[in-house]
Amino acid sequence: MSRIIKAAGYSLDGFRAAYKFEAAFRQILWLNLILLLTLIFMPFAISIKMLLIIASFLSLIVELLNTGIEACVDHTSMTKHPLAKIAKDVGSAAQFLSLLLLFSLWTMAFSSLLR
To answer: Strand, coil or helix: what is 55?
Structure first.
């Protein structure tokens, strides 16, 4: 039980650090909070709501992983290195895809209301 409590504490520390030090995480967090609040009032089917919630969480998870990658790369060295650029760019590309997925699913959800 104490291991679970410690793990939850580490997770909370991670959320705090990401929110404090990473503007992109704050932006994505607030975007998703707004989308999830909007979801409460939208007359979507439960399956659509579930997909939108999954996509929101996925975008947050990817941003946390991207933030971790950037922190590791910056900790290793602040000098420019081709591999460091690749690591940061790949993390950014993953986040782009998760946001594209979020946008696409919301677009499809709204279009389903117009039918």
So the answer is: helix
Neighbours of 69 (CB within 10 A): 17
CA-based angle 38:27:80, to the nearest 5? Answer: 150
> Of 48, 60, 62, 63, which residue is the catalytic one?
63
Q: pLDDT confidence of 115, banded at 50, 70, 90?
A: confident
Active site residue 63: yes
Burial, 28: exposed, middle or buried (Cβ in 10 Å; 0-12, 13-18, 19+)? buried
pTM for this entry: 0.92
C-alpha torsion 33→18→67→98, nearest 10: -10
How many of the other CB atoms lie within 10 Å of CB of 10?
8
